[in-house]
Write a structure and sequence with these properties.
Bound molecules: inosinic acid
Number of helices: 12
CATH class of the largest domain: Alpha Beta
CATH architecture of the largest domain: 3-Layer(aba) Sandwich
CATH topology of the largest domain: Adenylosuccinate Synthetase, Chain A, domain 1
Largest sheet: 10 strands, mixed
Length: about 425
């Protein structure tokens, strides 16, 4: 394993948490590198279901140091609540490390996220309203407040007051909202800071040292390639880089430190929020995928849009993240269907696009070019090895790896940890 980046190869919700959690059993460090509590990871172990949004999934193992890297945006209130929930469930999060360079989600970020979405009306992005975009916006406009600033009250107050001077104008004059009070925020956030102080660390150094010492490090992705601010379906994306480049800048290590990039894809595809989706199914098959696959958001509870596997998008993910192998999740959900389709290209007018089109308009206009595969129509949720899958399911997996251009090394047929197994060669 040594240093493995776990990437969502679609629009998020592929089951990264589950795979990161599996890898974490043998890991020394599990590090989140971007996003914040917009992500939702459900981990099922026996009868226990853990829903995490910010704390890396490796936290459940005593052998793992969970780390939140500088590329993340942290809502300290949510983080502390999540840590309290873990403690309540008998899991000790005291080893959690947080980069002092990570940016802080402030109350005005959450408010701005919500009111901006309302303001955008039918053009809204469908964000999780967790303040993610506005926090990253402040980071890049250099108005952000970092975790380390909370430990330097003079700097913190200065930054907070500067931010509020502008934010309160925007909130009151453009969005007709009440202004935020600096003293109240300051009191609240300094209290969070005091409770988190033992966790603040040099995350880059910690991760780099672990890699140097030959330890196993898992870079736990959130969201997915098609939600990447640079490579996704902009503007219907998140405000950070879920692709593998984001793992490097979001932790502070170099490309030579990485041994493998594991892409996680569902055997079909889903997305939440707005934006183009060539293989979306607005029919009974799409609804069956939602029902059987339990396709409702972990964070917001929203119904996910579902469709057939898009191999054009998958190849694109493999390219932009340098994915070296894939895990194919929720194969059991396809057991319903007599015929299973995979999009191998898009067609718009007379043009066929075997590669992800550079002009996004094509994604709205195109028709997917499908190839059809016979279904297996038998329950595979109890299968525990690749060779025991029905022949049609095996050949579906083999076809996916052919189309993606990288091996599928893991398949998952159910929520339980034991339902994920390796694919023999
Ligand atoms: P934001 O990240 O809250 O700003 O939302 C931007 C877009 O990314 C919206 O379409 C969200 O639904 C989507 N998004 C953010 N986080 C996730 C995730 O963890 N899974 C799936 N979609 C996500």
């Amino acid at each position: 394993m040594p240093a493995t980046i776990v990437i969502g190869a679609q629009w998020g919700d592929e089951g990264k948490g589950k795979i990161a959690n599996l890898l974490a059993r043998d890991a020394d460090v599990v590090v989140r590198y971007q996003g914040g509590n917009n992500a939702g990871h459900t981990i099922v172990i026996g009868d226990e279901v853990f829903a995490l949004s910010l704390v890396p999934s490796g936290v459940i193992y005593p052998n793992v140091i969970p780390v939140i890297g500088n590329g993340c945006v942290i809502d300290p209130k949510v983080l502390l609540e999540e840590m309290a929930t873990l403690r309540h469930r008998g899991i000790d999060p005291s080893g959690l490390k947080i980069s002092g360079n990570a940016h802080v989600i402030m109350p005005y970020h959450r408010k701005l996220d919500a009111v901006r979405e309302r303001f955008l009306g039918k053009n809204q992005i469908g964000t999780t309203k967790r303040g993610i975009g506005p926090a990253y916006l402040d980071k890049f406009s250099r108005d952000g407040i970092r975790i380390q600033d909370l430990y330097d009250p003079k700097i913190f107050h200065n930054k907070l007051n500067t931010a509020l001077r502008e934010k309160n104008q925007i909130l009151t004059k453009i969005y007709n909202q009440l202004p935020f009070d600096s003293a109240a925020i300051s009191e609240e956030y300094l209290e969070y800071a005091a409770r988190l102080s033992d966790h603040v660390a040099d995350a880059s150094l910690l991760v780099w040292q672990a890699i140097r010492d030959g330890k196993n490090v898992v870079f736990e992705g959130a969201q997915g390639t098609l939600l990447d601010i640079d490579h996704g379906t902009y503007p219907f994306v998140t405000s950070s880089n879920p692709t593998s480049g984001g793992a490097l800048t979001g932790v502070g290590v170099g490309p030579k430190d990485i041994d493998a990039v594991l892409g996680i894809a569902k055997a079909y595809i889903s997305r939440v929020g707005s934006g183009p989706f060539p293989t979306e199914l607005d029919d009974d098959i799409g609804s069956a995928m939602v029902e059987v696959g339990g396709e409702f958001g972990t964070v917001t509870g929203r119904r996910r849009r579902c469709g057939w596997l898009d191999a054009v998008a998958l190849r694109y993910s493999v390219r932009v993240s340098g994915i070296t192998e894939l895990a194919l999740m929720k194969l059991d959900v396809l057991s319903e269907f007599a015929m299973i389709r995979i999009a191998t290209a898009y067609r718009s007018g007379d043009t066929e696009y075997p590669d992800f089109p550079r002009q996004q308009r094509v994604l709205y206009e195109c028709e997917p070019v499908y190839e059809d595969h016979p279904g297996w129509q038998t329950d595979i949720s109890g299968v525990r090895s690749f060779n025991d899958l029905p022949a049609a399911a095996q050949s579906y997996v083999r076809r996916v790896e052919e189309l993606a251009g990288v091996p599928v090394t893991m398949v998952s047929v159910g929520p339980d940890r034991a339902a994920t197994f390796e694919v023999g060669r």
